[in-house]
Amino acid sequence: MSNLTRPKRSFKSFIGSMLVFSLIAGMFAFMIPMTQAQAEGRTFTVGFDAEFPPYGYKDNSGEYVGFDLDLAQEVCSRNGWTLRKQPIVWDTKDSELNSGSIDCIWNGFTINGREDKYTWSDAYVDNSQVVIVRKDSEIKKLSDLAGKTVLVQADSSALAAFQGEDATDENKQLASSFKTLRQSADYNTAFMELDMADAVCLDYGVANYQLSSRGDTFRMLDEKVSTEQYGIGFKLGNTELRDKVQQTLYEMKSDGKFDEIAKKWGLQDSVVLKAPDKKAEDESGKKFVVGFDAEFPPYGYKNDQGEYVGFDLDLAQEVCTRRGWTLIKQPIVWDTKDSELNSGSIDCIWNGFTINGREDKYTWSTPYVDNSQVVVVAKDSPIKSLDELKDKIVLVQADSSALAAFKGDDATKENKALAESFKSLRQTADYNTCFLELESGMADAVCLDYGVANYQLRSRGDSFRMLEEKVSTEKYGIGFKLGNKELRNKVQETLLEMKADGTFDRIAEKWGLADSVCLSAEDKYIDKTEQTILPGQGSEGVDWGSMFRQLGEGMSKTLLIFFLTLLFAMPLGLLVSFVRMSRFRVLQWIARIYISIMRGTPLMLQLLVVGFAPYYVFGIRQDESYRFIAVIIGFSLNYAAYFAEIYRAGIQAVPKGQREAASVLGYTGGQTFRKIIFPQMVKNVLPPVTNEIITLVKDTSLASVLTYLEMFTIAKQLSASYTNLIPLFVAGAFYYVFNFLVAFIMEMIEKKLSYYK
């Protein structure tokens, strides 16, 4: 039997071995070409509209060709990549990109109006929106399109030029005069429909191609609808791939290949890409750290996608691109900007930074924006002019130009007198807080920069208005560390290049600041002093008496918050702990939810909710006195939650046997708690309670979120005024001494209770 079965097993083993061998061989055979492909480089997938000549389309031989595809092929060839041309439906381009189906959108893709939605290459083609009509059409100019049917491609630059957020008022009015503005799937359809429509609006490059391809049937109007620039759109945040492609395009521009491809497709007159010059090559790799206030739109702020954007940051990015630097966007606390600059943490302050009144403190660029200080009030406010601000509460940002306009050394007599007439001139940390207070009725007016005011009015709807009178006029510059003229000169030189070739003005127009630009090659540097600030030099201007007086006033407010919070939070915490340990589950859950919210959300947010909820939730306007009440309520509610859990732990740490013994001795529940449980609980919780009390001393600085000026906020303002950290160090000493006393007193109490050991 075994002799008969052995051959069968051998045969089966042989067949099995062959199958395994074939599988392994097949895997190797499959892996070899993949390995070769990997050795040659990655696959670069370009998404494009296959019906958009001359940028990308299918020719008569069935091949995908075009200007952009030729550029992409050259980029791939130089990087050892494999180009994959992926036609896409234009309406789904974002889904394709975000899902990873394509690496970029490269197809005459307009940057304008989409700046925040993609990570962009530099603009490489300057394009315009033009109108094509039939040759025998009676339409001669744009105004003749009134009452006509005009075609555009879906989700195109032409559509955005008429109906987009950045469309000009003239184009919006023009579009409203059309009989209809109809969207077509592609331009082939649009030209086929010209027998049933009157005009097609499209990109200049595409229009030229269509005219040359379709014979003598159509013509282009002389007037342009809008001007735009093309770039390559990568997924937001994919700067690594963008930089590789961008660098290769620079190389192609430098050696002439880029212009050769543009000439092939008749687009040589539209090219705007510039190769970095020699100075950029020499400085490549340098980091340029720009300090900015991240809550100061439109100059610098965080957008909905979580990216730092703004007019000044766009300018800084263009400067870095041209010089081969790497831009580091560094958000800073505005009150500590001088410390950041003088310590070398940042290279400059570039954020709608006012020169006026600060000429001697920094090495400045020449002014680039002419700005004014204006006043914004609620739309229904009775205030119509500046003199009606008498006895009113006016808000300004801490260490801002508006504050300097009222109280600075260079403030006019009229403005100082006006400020004296206010009921209060109060400083806030940021403009969001200003407008929250203004809308809720806790303040009457906000004084701020004209550009910022315009942005806020556009963003916040029809709730506010700007007074016609201006408080002061000022100019913005870039502030470098005093004496750092070398870096200032490099940045200034690049800005003037940008101004000369139109890039500066395009960026200004993008952010709605075109009318404020004042950069000029004729401007002279503001160099009033040649000396460099040495460590400790800034302390010479400190008025010690005034500083201690102001910090003392702030300390009294800090102590008031501290003692009132303890007065309310400690008994409230005991009550919450009882509810938390209740036999009734509903009460337990109420206490748990309360404690979870208080401990799980920032105290700063809780203060904002208490401060502004009466208006935004219930429509109840609060006066100035409510600000302090809101601070105490917010702190008390927050700390009560922490004390509650500390008390609960202390109560539950008392052995259950002691309760039982008290019961045997005839003690009631109340007597047991007062005479046995509570004294031991106090002893148990003293160390963690001490920690919370010390933390409370430091947390009082958060009262500034409701513009209640306690000690640390005053210290920051003084530090900004003196341009050194001395007031902050003094404030720190106050905190330390007071916390030392608190710890000492709590330790003495703990020793007094040591007999419970």
Structure characterization notes:
By secondary structure, this protein is of the alpha/beta class. Among the domains are: 1-40; 42-275, D-Maltodextrin-Binding Protein, domain 2 (3-Layer(aba) Sandwich); 546-756, MetI-like fold (Orthogonal Bundle), CATH 1.10.3720.10. The protein contains 26 helices and 25 strands. The strands form four sheets. Strands 1, 5, 6, 7, 8, 9, 10, 11, 12 and 13 form a ten-stranded mixed beta sheet that branches. Helix 15 (431-440) packs parallel to helix 21. The N and C termini lie far apart (88 Å).
Largest sheet: 10 strands, mixed
Total number of strands: 25
User: Which percent range fits the helix content?
Assistant: 40-55%
Q: What's the overall average pLDDT, rounded? A: 82
CATH topology description of one domain: D-Maltodextrin-Binding Protein, domain 2
Tell me the overall shape: elongated
The proportion of residues in beta strands is 15-25%
| Assigned CATH class of one domain | Alpha Beta
Structural class: alpha/beta
Give the radius of gyration.
35 Å
Q: What is the CATH superfamily label of one domain?
A: Periplasmic binding protein-like II
CA-to-CA gap between the ends?
88 Å
CATH architecture of one domain: 3-Layer(aba) Sandwich
Which runs of at least 5 residues are low in confidence (pLDDT < 50)?
1-40, 529-540
Query: Number of helical runs?
Result: 26
